[in-house]
Amino acid sequence: MSVSNKKMQLVEMLEKKTGLLSAVLKITKSQKNYIADEDADKLLSELDERQKLIDEILRVDSLIDRTYMNQLVEEGDTRVSSLFNEIKTLLKYISEEDKSNIKEAEEKVSEYKNQIKKLKNDKARLNTYTSSAPYSDGIFIDKKK
Question: In terms of pLDDT, which residue wins out, 6 or 3?
Fold first, then answer.
């Protein structure tokens, strides 16, 4: 494979990866709304879609010749360097959004745990005060013998 073809293929793969990462970032940002709205179905759907994109990114990554890419970056190839920097920036943004989403989801889970605990306590308290007596008609005790 000639050098120009190899470079074109590398640029094509980096552009594809950039597009996929942009889609992942968009989905990651939309997940924040689903977490806030407590829409589990849409959140799970988005997570599935995001996972498909991540799998495709891994496939594209396996096709990228890292040694050649690093060589071009070191030589100062502007196109490869700009794509490489854009990928790093996208990864940073995705990571920040993901951490924010995880924190928000953990807060929701904690909130739900507290609500469940309160409901259990309320139920136990209610059962304590409303428990039925073993005999509802009363008992006659004869003291004469």
Answer: 6
